[in-house]
Structures are given as C-alpha cells and as structure tokens.
C-alpha cells in the first residue's frame, strides 16, 4: 500500500461518518471464521424470506376460491405437479427449520443455554458458542429432514 | 446573498429541523418491545399453523383440497377466525423479520423510515387482501 493510500485509509477510519468498512451483503453471507452459528444465522434469514414469499403466494393462491370451482381447480393444478410437490417439500423443511431454530434463538436471547461468563483465556472460545447451542441447531436440521420426508410421503402418495 | 435570503434560508433550515425532530420523536414501540411481539407472534403462529395443517391431514390430502371441502372449512366461523389469526400473526412476524433483515444491511435515517413505512403498508395490504378472501368465502353460496 502506498503512503498516500494508507494516509487516505487512516483519514477514512478517523472520519466519524466513514462507513466504508461495512461489508454489507458480502459480510452477511460470509461463513468463514464464524462457523455453524453463522450458517444458522443465514438459514434463519433465508428460510424466513422464502417463507414470507410463500405466504404472500399462498394468500394470493387461496384468493382464487372466491372466483369459483374452476379458478380454484386451475390454481390447484399448478401445485399438483412434481415441481409443485418439491416446492411444497422445501416449504415444509424451511418452516420446520425456521421454527425449531427460532425457538432456540428465543431461549438464547432470554439468556438460557449460554453458559457462565468467564475470564477470556487462550484459545478464547466463547462460552456462549457451546454444545447446547450447536445441538439445538442439529436438532433443527434433523427435524426439518424428518418433516420433509413425511411431507414427501403425503404429497407423492396422495394420502 | 442578501440578508433577507440568509434569514429565509435559516428559517427554512429551522423548519425542516423541527419537522425532522418531530418525526424522530415519534416512537410508537421500542425495538425490545417489537422483538417481544416478534417472538410472541412466532410462537402463536406455530400453534395456529399446526391446526391449519392438521385440518388438511384429517382426510386424504387430495380430497381435503377439493373446492367443496375448502369452502366448508371457510364457512365454519371458528376455522375462519383461525385463518384470520394465522394471517395476522404471520403477516406481523414475517414483515417484521424482513424489516430486521433490511435494517441489518443498511442504517441511515431515510432507509430506516422507508423500510418501516414499506413494511407497514405491505403488512396492512396482505392482511386486507387475505381478510377479503376469508369474508367472501365465508359467505360463499355453492348453490
């Protein structure tokens, strides 16, 4: 780095209104260093956005009821395909993961399962990132997989 | 620049400052309260959505989605109220979640206000649209 550039960088850092160090979406999506907790952070947000989009679509889809049986059948036909079934299975998985991980987050935010605060010693592993938290995340993944299997069975067997 | 125009400029600046202060003084809910609402609506939605899904599974899935069956569900006042509660709970939870995500990405006063307004308008819009379906389907005549 040239001296002019480094001087500018120092000026930028010293400037109170400087926001160039914000990584934005790139930082939001970066899983490196942060581990499974960052993956959980991603999944909670991505499944949340996906479910919100589905919710809006579902409200629109069910509004075809008011146009009579033909409109309802035409709308329903869209979901009665393999692609439609796979989409619904993804919705089932996303909603289960979002729910179970969300319950874990409610407990975490109320201070449950975070461990006791201690002196920061090498290798500086935070007590809050512990097996209780990680097992909560794994339970969320396992339950989501089970729910998806059950959903696939119901949708593809037609029962 | 004349002294009059300087005075006018200062007056305009003061006016806009006062308006900005007036807007920023409006705090309907603190973030901690909003997050409590987020958690309560999330847990509430879990129960009502579970009932909603179970209603689809009490008979063969394909049969439960037949027009007559779905209309019968909507004609049941308790089920219609359940659908309305799902609509409200998920709209609040979902759009507040979107708001949280958007505010994490960027933090400026204009952005925050724009996101808040957009989210509230979208929330009201989807609740109104869904309620319209519930009301019409509830009074729908098959004959």
Query: What is the level 1 CATH name of the domain at 37-111 and 127-159 in chain A?
Result: Mainly Alpha
Strand content of chain A: under 5%
**How big is the Rg of chain B?**
23 Å
Q: Any idea what the CATH superfamily of the domain at 37-111 and 127-159 in chain A is called?
A: Fumarate reductase/succinate dehydrogenase, transmembrane subunit
CATH topology of chain B: 3 helical TM bundles of succinate and fumarate reductases
Name the poorly predicted regions of chain A.
none
Q: How would the global form of chain A be characterised?
A: extended
By CATH, the architecture of the domain at 37-111 and 127-159 in chain A is named Up-down Bundle
Question: What is the terminal-to-terminal distance of chain A?
Answer: 66 Å
Helix content of chain B: over 70%
Number of strands of chain B: 0
Mean pLDDT of chain B: 83
The pLDDT mean of chain A sits at 84
**Uncertain runs of chain B:** none
CATH architecture of chain B: Up-down Bundle
Protein model, in words:
The complex is a heterodimer of chains A (159) and B (143). By secondary structure, chain A is an all-alpha fold. Chain A has a domain at 37-111 and 127-159: Fumarate reductase/succinate dehydrogenase, transmembrane subunit (3 helical TM bundles of succinate and fumarate reductases, Up-down Bundle). Chain A is built from six helices and no strands. The longest helix of chain A is centred in the middle third of the chain and has 28 residues, at 82-109. Chain A is extended and about 70 Å long. The termini of chain A are far apart. Chain B has a single domain (26-138), classed as 3 helical TM bundles of succinate and fumarate reductases (Up-down Bundle), CATH 1.20.1300. Chain B is an all-alpha fold. Chain B contains six helices and no strands. The mean pLDDT of chain B is 83. Chain B is elongated, with a radius of gyration of 23 Å. Chain B has helices at residues 3-25, 31-57, 61-64, 67-75, 77-105, 109-138. The interface between A and B is medium-sized, with 30 and 34 residues.
């Amino acid at each position: 780095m040239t001296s002019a550039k480094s001087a500018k960088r120092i000026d930028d850092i010293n400037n109170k209104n400087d926001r160039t160090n914000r990584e934005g979406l790139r930082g939001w999506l970066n899983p490196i260093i942060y581990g499974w907790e960052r993956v959980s952070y991603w999944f909670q947000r991505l499944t949340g956005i996906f479910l919100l989009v589905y919710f809006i679509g579902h409200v629109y889809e069910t509004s075809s009821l008011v146009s009579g049986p033909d409109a309802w059948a035409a709308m329903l036909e869209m979901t009665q395909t393999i692609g439609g079934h796979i989409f619904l299975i993804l919705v089932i998985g996303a909603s289960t993961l979002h729910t179970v991980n969300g319950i874990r987050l409610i407990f975490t935010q109320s201070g449950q399962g975070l461990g006791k605060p201690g002196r920061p010693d090498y290798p500086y592993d935070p007590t809050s990132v512990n097996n209780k938290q990680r097992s909560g995340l794994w339970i969320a993944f396992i339950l989501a997989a089970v729910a998806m299997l059950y959903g696939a069975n119901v949708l593809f067997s037609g029962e | 620049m004349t002294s009059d125009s300087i005075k006018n400029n200062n007056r305009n600046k003061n006016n806009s400052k006062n308006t900005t202060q007036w807007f920023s003084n409006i705090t309907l809910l603190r973030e901690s309260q909003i997050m409590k609402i987020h958690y309560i609506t999330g847990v509430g939605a879990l129960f009502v959505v579970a009932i909603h899904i179970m209603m689809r599974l009490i008979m063969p899935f394909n049969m439960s989605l037949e027009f007559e069956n779905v209309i019968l569900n909507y004609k049941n006042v308790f089920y219609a109220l359940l659908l309305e509660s799902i609509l409200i709970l998920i709209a609040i939870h979902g759009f507040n979640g979107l708001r949280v995500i958007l505010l994490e990405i960027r933090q400026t006063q204009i952005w925050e206000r724009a996101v808040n307004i957009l989210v509230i308008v979208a929330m009201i819009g989807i609740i109104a649209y869904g309620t319209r379906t519930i009301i019409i389907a509830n009074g729908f005549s098959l004959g």
